[in-house]
Design a protein that fits this description.
With 61 residues, the protein is mainly beta. The protein is built from two helices and three strands, in the order βββαα.
Length: 61
């Protein structure tokens, strides 16, 4: 079965300091579009939330 979804209508929005992530979930795949404001830094915006010094996600594209 083919799934068709648009990032323009995300399943979820995750807000964090100085940015946000819009997420679309497909069978076996999580697709996200991140928006970062000028000056965004992992260490200032996500380090404490994620509990890691660096992003550990597998990135495609």
């Amino acid at each position: 079965m083919t799934e068709i979804k648009s990032i323009e209508k995300p399943d979820e929005r995750r807000d964090f300091p100085r940015g946000h992530l819009e997420v679309v979930q497909l069978s076996g795949l999580l697709f996200g579009k991140a928006t970062f404001e000028p000056g965004w830094r992992w260490t200032e915006s996500l380090k404490d939330i994620m509990g890691t010094d660096l992003c550990e996600a597998d990135h495609k594209g």
